[in-house]
Every structure is written in structure tokens, then in C-alpha cells.
Design goal:
With 415 residues, this protein is an all-alpha fold. The protein is built from 21 helices and no strands. The chain folds into 3 domains: 107 residues, no CATH class; 118 residues, no CATH class; 76 residues, Serine Threonine Protein Phosphatase 5, Tetratricopeptide repeat (Alpha Horseshoe), CATH 1.25.40.
């Protein structure tokens, strides 16, 4: 097996198994998330060193768990500070190793870990970031960027939250139904953020984060199975399905990025859109409206272009007005501004962007990309080029960078 193939196997194990292993072990080690993370991290490093020479084991998860357990033994010999915690962790890893080595699929307890991270004892500001790191494996630097804070501050926040889980003895299980309302919102936010992180990077399938969108979609489906009458869970799944339905249309045959209004609707997955619409219909019966139902409704209007051939921007603008009442998220405000550009013209849209909190927008790529297009439409080329340059510098996706560069060249009448 080639070196790159070995690393691909390890990345796949990390992407698909890390959170399953972590949640299983931590649940049986008195909630010691950090101890389990440290041991598993060392096991993955050992795999990177040994598998290229020794080959990939038949059961990678069992190998990782056995290696993590050995690392704990070595650590315990060097220090007695956490002796009792080490014993708990060793037993937890032994149990997990036996489960991974047995026939059948390894137990998936990630949803339980999501609810642990959403426990009322955890600082509300840390709940969603904690879920993103422990359950979906997103690195703290990327989480910090998503939450507009420094990596150091985010790391400290996450460490405090993990310590609280251990000290408070929070049970690793899906809580009783009467406790769901206080936690579900944070779980929904985490799943949505994870999907967005994987969705926004077209190149991420190869780099290791592309699987996040699929993992988040799976978690949303599990949540709806648990909460079939929760309108916001239904709304979130409808939203993700509408987005997933357009996955193949986001790039043309040459791999170039295609923005939503220009996508070929024949390439949209009609079955997924129908599932999304059915979920929205079910959610509407509740008589309540929430953020994710509105987000899904906006995507539903876009989906109607497959039948009508046109986009009803007035309806989208009204939905964004309602959405902003539920969330001050930058994405919602930018979406509203774009809808205003289609209904009232680019000047209205630029005014809406200027009214946003500028201190939060310096490193927000969608803001700069939107602003650049507006300035180009208003025939302000120097400002448009500067905004495009800022958007390109903040973009991780090569296809989108190329798209923005091409749009920037068009400002001067280029091809």
C-alpha cells in the first residue's frame, strides 16, 4: 500500500471513528473526555508512524484502542497524580477494545455525547464549540474562526468545559424527554455548523473535512428519529437535504464553482428535495416557527426554480426578514442583503451591508465576496477589486478562489 493510501486510511479512521471511540470510552471513564482524547491522540500518532511499515491492521479501531490503552499504562507509570482516573480509563479502553474486536459494528454513541456537551452545567458559550470538537472532530482553530474568537481563547473555553463534564459527573446518555428542550437548540446549532464547515469546502473531501457534511446529515436524521415531533429538528434536516440535493450542481464538468442562481436545476436531486418538502410540511403542522424552519423555507423557494424557471426573490427577502428576528447571524444578514439587491437594487444591498457590525466582518469571506459583486454592479472598479482580493485571501476552496478571480477580471471587461 502506498504512503498516501496509508495516510488516507488513517484519516478515514479519524474522521469516521474518532468521535465514536471517544464517546464510548469517555462514557465509561467517569466522563474523562480529556484523558480519552490524549490517549486516542497518541494512538493516532503511533498509527501514522507504524502503519506505513507494518501495514493497516484488519480492525483499525481495535488496534487504536489497544495502543491507546498501552499509552495510558506508560503514562501511569510515570505519574501517580491521576492514578485513579487512569484506572478508569484503562478499563474503559479495554471494554471498547473488546467491542471493536467483536463481530458487528462498533457502538455509535455520538448523539449521547452531543447531549452531554449541551448539559446546563456547561457554559452556554462553550456548548456548540465543544460538540464540534469532540463529536465531529473539528480542530479548535477552525472553531475559533467560526465563532469569531482567538484560537487561544477557544482552547481555554473547551478545556474548562471538558473539566466541568468530569467534575460534575454528567451522565453520558440521551437525557429524559423533559430535559430535551433545554439542550436541543445547542445540538441543532452544532450539527448545522458542522454541515456548513464540510459544505463550504469543495476540496475538503480529500483533506479530511469533506466527510463532515455527511456526518452532520446522519446526526440530523438520528435526531429526527429521536424527536419526530420537534419542528426545528425537522426544519434542520429539511435544510440540509435541500443543500445536499444540489451538491453535484455546485461544480461544472471542468470542476469550476457554480453559484446557486446559475446552477443547472436538472442536476438537482429531486428525491432529496421531495424529502425536504415533506419534512417542512410536517414541521408546519406544529404552528410554531423557528430559525431552521425559516432557513429551510428559503431553500425551498430556491428549489422552486426547478419547476418555475425563476427565483421568487420577494419571498426570499420576506423570509430573511423573519429569520433575522430569530438569529443575528452574519449569514442571515448577508442573505437578506443579497435578496434586497434582487428586489431593490445593489445600492439598497450595499447600504444593508454597511449597517452590519463592521468589527465582525474583517475576516468574513462571504461578506467580502458579496460586497465585491455589488461594487462591480455599481461600477466602482477599484473598490470591487479590493473587495475581491480580500474575499480570495480568506477563501480555502480553490474552485471558489478561481471563481472570484474570474469575477474580478470581469470588472475591467475581461473574459
Amino acid at each position: 500500500m502506498l504512503q498516501r493510501d496509508i495516510h488516507a486510511v488513517i484519516e478515514q479512521a479519524a474522521r469516521h471513528s474518532y468521535a465514536q471511540l471517544l464517546s464510548f470510552v469517555a462514557a465509561r471513564a467517569d466522563g474523562d473526555v480529556m484523558g480519552a482524547e490524549d490517549a486516542l491522540g497518541e494512538a493516532f500518532l503511533a498509527a501514522l508512524r507504524q502503519w506505513p511499515d507494518e501495514g493497516v491492521p484488519a480492525k483499525p479501531e481495535a488496534w487504536l484502542l489497544a495502543t491507546a490503552r498501552r499509552r495510558l499504562v506508560d503514562s501511569q507509570r510515570r505519574s501517580v497524580v491521576r492514578f485513579r482516573a487512569m484506572n478508569d480509563l484503562q478499563q474503559a479502553f479495554a471494554t471498547a477494545e473488546a467491542a471493536a474486536d467483536a463481530d458487528g459494528e462498533f457502538p455509535d454513541e455520538r448523539l449521547g455525547l452531543l447531549f452531554v456537551c449541551a448539559h446546563p452545567a456547561i457554559d452556554p458559550a462553550a456548548r456548540t464549540p465543544l460538540m464540534l470538537q469532540t463529536v465531529l472532530g473539528i480542530e479548535s482553530k477552525r472553531i475559533a474562526s467560526a465563532f469569531l474568537t482567538s484560537p487561544a481563547s477557544m482552547s481555554q473555553r473547551l478545556v474548562r468545559a471538558k473539566t466541568k463534564i468530569h467534575e460534575a459527573g454528567i451522565p453520558f446518555s440521551v437525557p429524559p424527554r423533559d430535559e430535551w428542550p433545554d439542550r436541543v437548540g445547542f445540538v441543532l446549532d452544532a450539527i448545522y455548523t458542522a454541515f456548513s464547515t464540510g459544505w463550504e469546502n469543495a476540496h475538503s473531501e480529500a483533506s479530511g473535512t469533506g466527510g463532515l457534511a455527511k456526518e452532520a446529515l446522519w446526526l440530523a436524521q438520528v435526531l429526527v428519529h429521536l424527536l419526530p415531533d420537534e419542528p426545528e429538528a425537522l426544519g434542520l434536516l429539511a435544510l440540509l437535504l435541500h443543500c445536499q440535493a444540489r451538491r453535484s450542481a455546485r461544480h461544472d464538468a471542468a470542476g469550476r464553482y457554480v453559484p446557486l442562481p446559475e446552477q443547472d436545476t436538472a442536476r438537482w436531486d429531486k428525491a432529496l428535495m421531495e424529502q425536504a418538502e415533506a419534512l417542512l410540511t410536517t414541521a408546519a403542522r406544529s404552528g410554531t416557527t423557528g430559525r431552521f424552519q425559516l432557513e429551510a423555507a428559503i431553500q425551498s423557494v430556491h428549489a422552486q426554480r426547478a419547476q418555475t424557471g425563476a427565483t421568487h426573490w420577494e419571498a426570499i427577502a420576506l423570509l430573511y426578514e423573519a429569520l433575522i428576528q430569530h438569529t443575528p447571524a452574519l449569514g442571515a444578514q448577508i442573505g437578506r442583503a443579497v435578496a434586497l439587491a434582487h428586489t431593490r437594487g445593489p445600492s439598497w444591498c450595499l447600504d444593508a451591508l454597511d449597517a452590519m457590525p463592521q468589527s465582525l466582518l474583517k475576516n468574513h469571506q462571504p461578506y467580502w465576496a458579496t460586497r465585491a459583486q455589488l461594487l462591480a454592479d455599481l461600477r466602482r472598479p477599484a473598490e470591487a477589486h479590493a473587495a475581491y482580493a480580500q474575499a480570495i485571501g480568506l477563501c480555502d476552496d480553490p474552485a471558489i478562489r478561481q471563481f472570484l478571480a474570474e469575477r474580478s477580471r470581469r470588472v475591467d471587461g475581461g473574459p
